[in-house]
From TrEMBL:
Domain Helicase C-terminal: from-to ranges: 218-364
Domain of life, per lineage: Bacteria
Top EC group: isomerase
Protein family per UniProt: Belongs to the helicase family. RecQ subfamily.
Name of the protein described by the UniProt record: ATP-dependent DNA helicase RecQ
MF-aspect GO terms: 3'-5' DNA helicase activity; ATP binding; DNA binding; four-way junction helicase activity; hydrolase activity; metal ion binding
Listed EC numbers: 5.6.2.4
Length: 632
C-alpha cells in the first residue's frame, strides 16, 4: 500500500504535522511540476524533497554544493533506516563506480551529488540508467550569476533534464532576490514558472546593526546580557582564537573554530557547543552550514558580511526554536572600507588569472596537453605562499577559471579512510593462512564492518590500533601492504579541498577568460555591497530592509530591531515632554526659559524641538513672550 505524506512524516521523522508550505511543495512535486521553493533558513527544506521521493518508486538525486551538509543528511537518513549515499570530490574512480552501481541495482533511495561531479561522463551515463523520481537542487541560488554565491558547476544541472525529461525539478533556497528567482527558473529550464514561497520574515529575531568603537566590550555585554549559546563570526582564523581567548578571560566559556583545524578537533568543538557544554563558538563563515541547533540565542558579526544574502543566512542560525533571539552586527568605519577593498580584490586582471592557472599546472607538474580529469588535494594557503600570491585574489581567480570550464574546486571536507577487499572470501582465507602478519588486521576488518567485499566502507585506523594494541603507523603500513598485494583497495583519509582539472593543460597565454562575464559579475557585486551600506545607513527597520531586499515590499515594522527600539524610545520621550508642557501651561503661561527648565524629561534641545512642534500643530501659542496651552 502506498503511504501518504503525513504517515511517512510520522514514521520517519516523528512529527504530527507539516510546517507552513511543506505540504504544498510536496503536492506540487508529486503532480510532476517543476517547482522553486523559497523558505527561510531552518524552514525544513530537505523534507520537501525527501518525503515525495519516499512516496514514489525509484531514486531521488540531490545536488548540493555543501559536502558537509550532504554527509550530515546521508547519516540522518541512514539513521532513520533510509538507504542514502553521497558522491563528492576526493572519492576514487572505482569507489564512485561501485556507488553508482548500487544506485542502479540496489535499494538506494537518495543519491547526493556535489555539482562538480556532473562534469564526469561516468556519472552522467550512470544517471541515465537510474529510475530517477525527482531532481532536487539544494542552495539553488548558486545557479544564478545574480546570486551572492554563484557556482559555475551548477550550470551543468540543466543537462540532467535530457537524461529523464519527464522527471520534475525541485529547487530550494533560503536566499533569493526577485532577479535570482527568475534566473533560477530560466537556468533550470522550467517548463512553466512556478514558485512557492514563505515569507522571509523571522518575527522572533531582533536584528541589530551598531557602529561601535569598542566592539569587543560591546560583544561581551551582549553575550552576558542575552545568555544562552551563540555564535560569533569573525573575518579570519587568527581572530577566532583572539576573540575566544578574550571571552574566556572574561568568564565566558568559549572556543574557536575554522576550516584549518583537523577533523577530530572540529568535531569535538562542534559537539561541545551543540550539546551546550560550550556557550560560545567563535568562527569564520566555514561554521554553521547543516548545523541544526535550535536554541541559539545570539549570532554576533564582528565584521560586515559581503552581502545581505550571506548575512541573512548566517544571522538566521539564531532562534530556530522560534523564541526570541538576537542577530547583532558590530562595525566600524574601517570595516566598511575593507568591504570595498575586498570587492576590488575579487576581480583580478585577466593576466593574473592566467598566471594562477600557469602556476597551478606547474605546482602539480602537469605537462602540456595532459591533466584532463585529474584530482588533487589542494591547500590554497600553501599554494599562495609558494608563489607569493594574494590569497583573496587567488581564490577569485580560481572561481573564474572554474566558470570558464578549466577546473573545478570543492570546499574542504573530511573524507574518512575507506577499504574494500578485491578478492572473494575463500581467496582471502587462503591469504590469511599464508600471511600470518596480516591475519589480525583482516580479522579486525571482517568483525567490524559488513559489506566490505561489495563496496568501500569507511574505516578508522585509530580504532584498529587500539583493538590490536599496535601503533597507528603500523596499522597504516599493514593496510598499504594489503593494497600493494592487490588484496584490498585502501583510500586514505583527507580533509583538504579537492581540485580537478577539467581540460588538458594549455599555454596560459592562450587561456580563454570571459571578460564580459567578469565585468557583469563586478557590477552585480557592487550592487550587493551598496545594498549592505544601505542596510547600515538608511534608517529603515532592519527586518523591513532585509525583506524589501528579498522582494517583500509590504512588510510591517518589526518593533524589536535597534532602529525600532530607538524610534519607540524617542516617541515615548516626546510624548512625556508633551504631557509635561500641557500640565505646566494649563497651570499658567510661562516664558521660554521657565518652561524648558521646568520639564524634567530628556535634554534641552529635545524639549525645544517638541515645543516648536506643538506650536506648529497649534496646541501651544506664543503671546507677549509667554507660552499658552490652547489645545482642546
Amino acid at each position: 500500500m502506498v503511504q501518504n505524506s503525513l504517515s511517512i512524516l510520522k514514521q520517519y521523522w516523528g512529527y504530527d504535522g507539516f510546517r507552513p508550505l511543506q505540504e504544498e511543495i510536496i503536492s506540487s512535486v508529486l503532480n510532476g511540476r517543476d517547482t522553486l521553493a523559497l523558505m527561510p533558513t531552518g524552514g525544513g527544506k530537505s523534507i520537501c524533497f525527501q518525503i515525495p521521493a519516499l512516496m514514489q518508486e525509484g531514486i531521488c538525486v540531490v545536488i548540493s554544493p555543501l559536502i558537509a551538509l550532504m554527509k550530515d543528511q546521508v547519516e540522518q537518513l541512514r539513521g532513520r533506516g533510509i538507504e542514502a549515499i553521497a558522491i563528492y570530490s576526493g572519492m576514487g574512480y572505482r569507489e564512485i563506480d561501485i556507488a553508482l552501481d548500487n544506485c542502479i541495482f540496489g535499494k538506494i533511495k537518495f543519491l547526493y551529488l556535489a555539482p562538480e561531479r556532473l562534469y564526469s561522463d561516468l556519472v552522467r551515463e550512470r544517471l541515465r540508467y537510474m529510475k530517477v523520481n525527482l531532481w532536487a537542487i539544494d542552495e539553488a541560488h548558486c545557479i544564478s550569476q545574480w546570486g551572492y554565491d554563484f557556482r559555475p558547476s551548477y550550470l551543468q544541472i540543466a543537462q540532467l533534464r535530457e537524461l529523464h525529461p519527464k522527471v520534475p525539478f525541485l529547487a530550494v533556497t533560503a536566499t533569493a532576490t526577485p532577479n535570482v528567482v527568475v534566473d533560477i527558473q530560466e537556468q533550470l529550464g522550467f517548463v512553466s514558472p512556478h514558485v512557492l514561497s514563505r515569507s522571509f520574515a523571522r518575527v522572533n529575531l531582533g536584528y541589530m546593526a551598531l557602529e561601535e568603537e569598542n566592539k569587543m566590550n560591546r560583544m561581551l555585554r551582549i553575550v552576558k546580557k542575552v545568555g544562552g549559546t551563540g555564535v560569533v563570526y569573525v573575518r579570519n582564523r587568527r581572530e577566532t582564537q583572539e576573540v575566544a581567548r578574550f571571552l574566556l578571560n572574561h568568564g565566558v566559556p568559549a572556543d574557536y573554530y575554522h576550516a584549518g583545524l583537523g577533523m577530530k578537533e572540529r568535531s569535538a568543538k562542534q559537539d561541545a557547543w551543540s550539546s551546550n557544554k560550550m556557550r560560545v563558538i567563535v568562527a569564520t563563515n566555514a561554521f554553521g552550514m547543516g548545523i541544526d541547533k535550535s536554541d541559539v540565542r545570539f549570532v554576533i558579526h564582528l565584521d560586515i558580511p559581503d552581502s545581505l544574502e550571506a548575512y541573512y543566512q548566517e544571522a538566521g542560525r539564531a532562534g530556530r526554536d522560534e523564541k526570541k533571539a538576537f542577530p547583532v552586527l558590530l562595525y566600524q568605519q574601517a570595516d566598511r572600507d575593507r568591504l570595498w577593498t575586498n570587492l576590488e580584490s575579487s576581480f583580478p586582471e585577466v593576466s593574473f588569472i592566467q598566471q594562477v592557472y600557469h602556476y597551478l599546472a606547474n605546482y602539480y607538474q602537469i605537462a602540456y596537453g595532459s591533466g584532463q580529469g585529474l584530482f588533487f588535494d589542494f591547500d590554497i594557503v600553501e599554494f599562495s605562499k609558494k608563489y607569493t600570491l594574494d590569497l583573496l585574489q587567488t581564490l577569485s581567480a580560481l572561481k573564474f577559471l572554474e566558470r570558464d570550464g578549466w577546473l573545478a574546486l570543492s570546499e574542504a571536507v573530511y573524507i574518512p579512510s575507506r577499504l574494500k577487499f578485491e578478492i572473494d572470501f575463500q581467496e582471502l582465507y587462503k591469504f590469511q593462512v599464508q600471511s600470518a602478519k596480516y591475519d589480525p588486521i583482516i580479522k579486525a576488518v571482517l568483525r567490524t564492518y559488513g559489506g566490505v567485499f561489495d563496496f568501500y566502507v569507511p574505516i578508522n585506523e585509530y580504532e584498529f590500533a587500539k583493538k590490536l594494541k599496535l601503533p597507528y603507523e603500523v596499522i597504516v603500513e599493514l593496510l598499504q601492504g594489503l593494497e600493494k598485494q592487490q588484496i584490498a583497495s585502501y583510500l586514505k583519509s583527507t580533509d583538504k579541498p579537492q581540485l580537478q582539472f577539467l581540460q588538458s593543460r594549455v599555454d596560459y597565454k592562450n587561456l580563454y577568460i570571459d571578460t564580459d562575464f567578469l565585468r557583469e559579475r563586478r557590477q552585480i557585486k557592487e550592487r550587493q555591497v551598496k545594498a549592505v551600506y544601505a542596510y547600515l545607513d538608511e534608517g529603515m527597520c532592519r527586518s523591513q530592509a532585509l525583506l524589501s531586499y528579498f522582494g517583500e515590499l509590504e512588510s510591517a515594522v518589526c518593533g524589536v530591531c535597534d532602529l525600532c527600539l530607538s524610534r519607540n524610545f524617542k516617541e515615548e520621550q516626546e510624548l512625556k515632554i508633551e504631557q509635561e508642557v500641557r500640565v505646566l501651561l494649563l497651570e499658567k503661561a510661562l516664558a521660554l526659559h521657565e518652561l524648558i527648565d521646568a520639564i524634567p524629561v530628556s535634554d534641552e534641545n529635545k524639549r525645544i524641538q517638541v515645543l516648536r512642534r506643538l506650536v506648529d500643530l497649534e496646541k501651544v501659542e506664543l503671546r507677549d513672550s509667554l507660552y499658552y496651552w490652547i489645545a482642546h
